[in-house]
Amino acid sequence: MPKSRIRKKADYTPPPARQTANIKLTNRGWVAPVMLAMFLIGLAWIVVFYVTDGSLPVDALDNWNIVVGFGFIAAGFGVSTQWK
């Protein structure tokens, strides 16, 4: 039986060097303080409304003061989506 030819293997060639992708991380240091401030303003708005029997923070809004307080809290949650 004839002997088969032996293939010569190619020398090892390392894979091409990957270029590192430049990841631009923006500074989001403002998110946490603004988020907490919105939460606290909303909470304080609602507490002041209940403690003063509806005469403060804005007397003309009557029960809409609760909606304003929850609006601040909702805005805090909206800002929290920017946190990375």
Detailed description of the structure:
This protein is mainly α and 84 residues long. It contains 2 helices and no strands. Helix 1 (31-51) runs antiparallel to helix 2. It is rod-shaped, with a radius of gyration of 32 Å. The N and C termini lie far apart (70 Å).
Rg computed from alpha carbons, rounded to a whole number of angstroms: 32 Å
Distance between the termini: 70 Å
| Strand residue content | under 5%
What class do helices, strands and sheet pairing give?
Answer: mainly alpha
Shape: rod-shaped
Which helices and strands appear, and what pairs or packs with what?
Elements: H1 31-51, H2 64-80
Helix pairs in contact: 1-2
Provide a concise account of the structure shown:
With 84 residues, the chain is mainly α. It has 2 helices and no strands.
Key features of this structure:
84 residues; 2 helices; single chain; mainly alpha
